[in-house]
Amino acid sequence: MSWPQPLPILEKLGREIVESSDGAITGYEVMYGEVNLVGPAGRIVDAMTHLRDHPDLRFSQLIDLCGADYPERPQRFDVVYHLLSMAKNLRVRMKVQTDEDTAVASVTGVFPCADWYEREAFDMYGIFFEGHPDLRRILTDYGFHGHPLRKDFPMTGYVEVRYDDELKRVVYEPVKSVEWRNWDFLSPWEGMEPGYAPLIPGDEKALPAATELPK
Questions:
Q1: Are 62 and 121 spatial neighbours (Cβ–Cβ below 8 Å)?
Q2: pLDDT by residue (tens digit) across 100-133?
């Protein structure tokens, strides 16, 4: 497998970013051909400004900003920033951690395009961004309860929507039976007939107990 950049180049890039960031970026690792950076959430604006403005870096485009939920951790959320340097033809990923109550500084002053990305992370995960100009939901409906991409959010949600023919409008009603997530991290293609597609881990759940997987 070939990586977008030779690994020594990425290792050198990671070291130089950490050394030149004055503590705003505290560590790095190279995984799957990409540089992953970490730093304190309280200095994310400094980190983004450094990555954008340093003449040897020039990561001038914020490609994406998203959340990730690890509910077993005290700081359950990662806020993940993906940056592109067109001048250097390089990409990096920056991560900071926070909890349900502690806001992360908005980077809209550094990358204006972070506006809707941060609203999406707030809507889906409940991550707060201090200094955001208009932090409100962007994908869910008005009055929506909860944050759908949290691991502890039920599969069915809390309310269901239907059209009431008597009232001539859409009405919201509580879900009568809540189905909770129960991930086993195996195949999402359970039930496919053997022979139609290559068997992958997890397919054994859809086969009769006496059936052996082909070697």
A1: no
A2: 999 999 999 999 999 999 999 999 999 999 999 9
Out of 1.20.1530.10, 3.30.10.10, 3.30.460.80, 3.40.50.2300, select the CATH number for domain 7-130: 3.30.460.80
* Distance of alpha carbon 37 from alpha carbon 14, whole angstroms: 8
Helix (H) or strand (E) holding 85: strand 77-85
Please give the Cα distance from 56 to 90 (Å, whole number).
11
Tokens representing residue 114 in the block: 């972070």
> Which amino acid, residue 198?
P
**Token pair in block for residue 210:** 């006496």
Domain residue spans of the chain: 7-130, 154-180
